[in-house]
Amino acid sequence: MVWLDLTTTLRLGAGQANGTLRVETRYAEALGRLMGPGLRFCRYHKTRRRFQAVPGLPPPGRSGPFAGKSARPKTGALRGFARGCEQAFRKWRRGLMAKVFRRIDALSEAKAFPDARPGDVLLLLGETWGQHDFPLLRELRRDQGLRVAVLCQDLIPLKFPQLFESEEFVEGCRALARFLAEDADLTIAISNSTRADIAEAAGAAGGLKGRLVTLRPGADFDMAANPQRPAEPADLSPGNFVLSVSTIQARKNFDLLYRLWRRFCEQKLPGLPKLVIVGRKGFGSGDLLWQIAHDPLVQGSIVLLQGASDSELSWLYRNCLWTLYPSLYEGWGLPISESLNHGKLCLASDSSSLPEAGQGLARHFDSLDFRAWEAAIRELVSSPEIVAAAEQRIRQTYRPMTWQQSGEQLAMHLSELLAEPPPNP
Question: Which of 57, 291, 361, 376 has an alpha carbon within 20 to 30 A of 350's alpha carbon?
Answer without folding.
Answer: 291
